[in-house]
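Lab notes, practical 5.
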Amino acid sequence: MINVLLINPPDYKMIQGAIPKELGRDRMGKYPPLGLLYIASYAQMRHPKILNINIVDAITDSLTHEEIQRIIEEFQPDIIGLSVYTFTLIDSLQVVRSAKRIVPHVHVVFGGFHPTIYPKETLLCSPDVDIAIAGEAEETFSAVIGRILNMQSLEGLPGVSFKKLNGDIHIDKQTQFVTDLNALPFPDRRMVNYKHHSCILGATGLTTNILSSRGCPYRCRYCYVNIREYRVRSLDNIFAEIHNCLSLDINEFFFVDDLFNLSKRRVIGFSERVIDEGLDIRWSFRGRVDQIDDETLEKAKKAGCTRIHFGIESGVPKILKRVNKGTNLEMVRNTLSLTRQFGIEVSSSIMIGLPGESPRETDETIRFVLSLSTDYIQASVFTPYPKTAFYEEGLRSSLLPNDYWSDFALHPVENFEPYIWGEFYTKEQLFDKLREIYRRFYLRPRFILSYVKHLTSLKAIAKLAKNFQTFHSLVTKRRIKD
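Output from the prediction step:
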């Protein structure tokens, strides 16, 4: 029997990116760690009877580092796997530093976006990290378990970088992905406290995230997508997972695909299946404004769609063109208005401080979003992320002084702050502008009256109180104490 512990690390020392620190921890909701759940389910399928695997979800369970240490000491893992983002690197390293002290022989594996971008830096930044996996890790991590179990070298495994016994490092920069999503077992949500998952927006029952596709073929210049091969699950496969969730009394679903509505027919086909099966579910998704029409919205509404999250990004035509969004303002306005006409809520995301955006154009974006038929906004400050087109442009133009993300990955330090695109603003000016957006949108009488109408239960009132705390923290620059 081999003990495997998968950890969704805490974010107590998360570095500031696109949103202010005052928002605090997990104030936008608590969601299942789908990546780790997929990896755990696949590993159990590939290594039945010899695998004892647990998941530590530090975010949902609000675990301290001391509590995680006690879990590690009790479980005595042979392998620890962490899902690591650059923003949570400091906390991730603290977790494995403690793990190596408690269980010196444990194999530590980092997977996720960070080691995909920086495999070499991941291994060199700490003596406590043994293995880095790039890309989608279900198949790869299971192969690593098999090699460790049989005391074999990891050499030759695509996408797996590791430290050799002599201290040298082996780097494999291949990015692996799963070609057949239907072949993956469903995430076993019972491995985590699924009843504690929630969304800051509107959910009334048990809710969960779900993936129906992976990859994104679009090339927005601010976005890092390491796998562009767009793959979809069959409707039979998706609905089998939905029925699995319904057996756990989960009836609200948020599709977190990079792109759920690549085509109108896909949304219509899903909606018709919900209707034909007579399912009483609520669902929402992230989508583009250029793949929405009357038929799509009519079917989606009838099938229980409650909200669509649209990426608007900017209210300035030249900025939309600069970011390679492939949409225009008329398309945005018409799609959002049409969505609201069908009784589906709209959440709109924008960024300020994009390349080439002057203060006058930032105000133009604010005026545009305030004029839209949208129920919610999610505003952020543009941050040039590593390996994106804008980051590379910033390095070439010397607007960014050096490859500071790579430097941080190799020498991670607390209180690290990424650069903004500083053509027209200081960082503080941008975050002040961000707070202004939230004040101007959420303090409008129209929004307050609409929100109050949703207060039909004690649970809704409790959520309102928490949301108010979050909002007050944001606009007053005060962090919420947990």
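Observations recorded by the TA: The chain has a mean pLDDT of 90. The two ends are 38 Å apart (CA to CA).
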